[in-house]
Design a protein that fits this description.
- The complex is a heterodimer of chains A (250) and B (313).
- Chain A is mostly helical and 250 residues long.
- Helix content of chain A is 82%, strand content 0%.
- Chain A has one domain (3-246).
- With 313 residues, chain B is an alpha/beta fold.
- Chain B has helices spanning 50-58, 100-110, 116-126, 142-154, 172-187, 199-205, 223-231, 244-251, 274-287, 302-312, and strands at residues 13-22, 25-35, 38-43, 65-70, 85-88, 160-164, 191-196, 208-213, 216-222, 235-241, 257-263, 266-271, 292-297.
- In chain B, helix 2 (100-110) crosses helix 3 (116-126), helix 2 (100-110) packs parallel to helix 4 and helix 3 (116-126) crosses helix 4.
- Chain B is elongated, with a radius of gyration of 24 Å.
- Classes of the chains: A mainly alpha (250), B alpha/beta (313).
- Chains A and B meet through helix 1 and helix 4 of A and helix 2 of B.
């Protein structure tokens, strides 16, 4: 096992404590359960509309960011608070590898949890409608948005003890408030990148079912969203590398 | 041979005019020193700047002024040097959910050790934790955790070992064993830098001592030289008696006494000869018909000793 793999594995392992697995696991099933209860007697076209509504109202702007925030902010933040940062940084490992491994570990843990919610919702829609065409778009959208959030919250967790509070402010005030009102800044909203990927892969019926506020002025397209997330990840690794090189570990 | 006792002949760690401040607070001020093969004790009271100093040596924090070089490079800019550095930090730095074996093995993998399993077993054997290595660190006593941290620092077989209060929480047997390990590593030609606020501990571990107080280098040299410097410090003694003014008047002209003051019916007497003053005080008390209630040195703490050394430099 290489140092990078060991770091990423340990990060994922520490992120997925039993408490979190159970708590987040149950939370991830909530949108699917709510959908099942609310769409049980609907026609197929209305069932899709309700599934997309649930996705846009509950899953992407609420559940997914919270899970990514808690796990992302803890990747380096917990090490700093627990006094274990010195254990990691006093190793002959290039700083960008530490940054990348931390991001990979936290990202994998958050993606794993959020995929439970995405697949449960797509599965619930499949059970009601007999169509499984939401599985891949929802999964890809979930991965895109989760990785984007993790890339934002890993450096934030290292920088501030109040990362969770700041992250919640970003999600609820900026993304779900400002970015919903001002369409021009919608591209700065990570969960909308997930919606862009979902819309790109879901086809015209999914795009038609999306409320205006979900996409803003963004164009559906999975590759565009993935490209933006890749850029975000590279910037995040760069930022964490600089922090590890220059910030005092007091 | 260098003339400055703060410097060594063939240094592995060089500290040049280093200062560190956090906002308005100066933690370390203008320290120049070097470290080489053998055990060097960094001695000073709590809050003296030892931990800040060790953190700068390892690159965990950067100096505000001056430079630190380890094996010719600055650790903050060249992390490859960490293959040669082992740190036992003062804080916990442990993963409580891991067993000691997994913890030390993790350190070995991160350190790029070629056979991490064998290296971890050897390091655990060295600190005598093999029998309990399967247990979670959360279940360890403080002394056992200290030893686990030492094992994690030793697992990469570093040329430089930096230990911040490594004996905290250990019992006398563990303490003695750890001291043996550190001494052995120093004798092997490694650079061992160990901080402590207890002179006796440093004396048992180190051949050479750097004393730090208030962020400044107070003294440097061998343990006997530091002890001698400390022996010259005048004592301040607190005396409680029923007739303090009469006692003070009788003591003030005594050759053993450097000074006397009265504060709220308590006498503060300065002397270089503590035992002599004790004998003289009994005689003087009889002369003036006073009854001595208590007699005790009031500033024999390491803090005041070091402060004295700083002012004298």
């Amino acid at each position: 096992m290489t140092a990078a793999t060991a770091l990423a594995t340990m990060t994922a392992r520490r992120s997925l404590t039993l408490k979190r697995l159970v708590g987040f696991g149950l939370l991830e099933l909530a949108p699917a359960l709510i959908y099942l209860l609310s769409a049980a007697n609907l026609r197929a076209d209305r069932a899709l509309e309700r599934a997309v509504d649930t996705t846009v109202a509950l899953y992407f702007p609420l559940l997914l960011p919270i899970v990514a925030l808690i796990i992302g902010a803890g990747a380096l933040g917990d090490e700093r608070r627990d006094g274990t940062m010195s254990f990691i940084v006093l190793r002959p490992i290039p700083r960008w590898i530490i940054a990348g491994a931390k991001l990979a570990g936290a990202g994998a843990a958050a993606v794993g949890l959020n995929l439970v919610g995405a697949l449960a919702l797509a599965g619930a829609y499949g059970v009601l409608s007999g169509s499984w065409h939401l599985v891949v778009p929802l999964a890809v959208g979930s991965i895109v948005a989760t990785v984007a959030y993790t890339a934002l919250f890993v450096p934030l967790g290292y920088l501030s003890d109040r990362a969770v509070l700041l992250g919640l402010g970003f999600v609820f005030v900026f993304e779900n408030g400002v970015a919903s009102a001002l369409q021009g800044v919608a591209s700065l909203s990570p969960w909308r990148l997930g919606i862009v990927a979902l819309a790109g892969l879901g086809g015209s019926d999914v795009v038609a079912a999306l409320p205006d506020v979900a996409l803003g002025d963004l164009m559906p397209g999975a590759w565009g969203a993935i490209g933006k997330v890749v850029v975000l990840v590279v910037v995040s690794i760069g930022a964490v590398t600089l922090l590890l090189r220059h910030r005092d570990l007091a | 041979m260098t003339e400055d006792p703060a410097l060594v002949e063939s240094p592995t760690v060089v500290v040049d005019g280093v200062s560190k401040w956090f906002g308005q607070k100066v933690a370390v001020s203008g320290i120049t020193c070097s470290f080489g093969a053998g055990v060097t004790g960094l001695l000073g009271p709590n809050g003296a700047g030892k931990t800040t100093m060790l953190r700068m040596l390892t690159g965990l924090i950067g100096p505000s002024e001056g430079t630190v070089e380890v094996l010719g490079v600055r650790p903050r800019t060249d992390p490859s040097v960490y293959a040669e550095i082992g740190l036992v930090p003062e804080e916990n730095a442990l993963y409580p959910d891991l067993s000691a074996r997994r913890y030390v093995r993790y350190a070995a993998v991160l350190g790029g050790v070629s056979d991490p399993d064998s290296a971890a077993d050897r390091a655990l054997e060295t600190v005598r934790l093999s029998d309990v290595a399967h247990r979670r660190l959360a279940a360890y006593s403080k002394g056992m955790r200290q030893r686990a941290k030492v094992a994690a620092a030793l697992v990469g077989d570093p040329r430089i070992l930096v230990l911040d209060e490594p004996l905290n929480g250990t019992d006398p047997v563990q303490r003695s064993h750890l001291i043996d390990i550190f001494r052995r590593m120093g004798d092997d030609g490694r650079t061992v830098i160990v901080s402590s606020h207890v002179l006796e501990e440093v004396e048992r571990m180190s051949d050479r001592v750097l004393a730090i107080v208030d962020g400044k280098l107070a003294a440097a040299g061998t343990v006997p030289a530091i002890r001698k410097a400390m022996a010259d410090i005048p004592y301040r003694v607190r005396v409680e008696a029923d007739r303090p003014r009469e006692l003070a008047a009788a003591l003030v002209s005594d050759a053993l006494v450097h000074g006397v003051s009265i504060d709220d019916q308590v006498l503060h007497v300065e002397t270089e000869d503590l035992a002599g003053l004790g004998r003289r005080l009994a005689a003087v008390a009889r002369q003036v018909d006073a009854r001595i209630v208590s007699f005790r040195p009031e500033d024999a703490s390491l803090v005041s000793v070091f402060r004295y050394l700083v002012h004298r430099r």
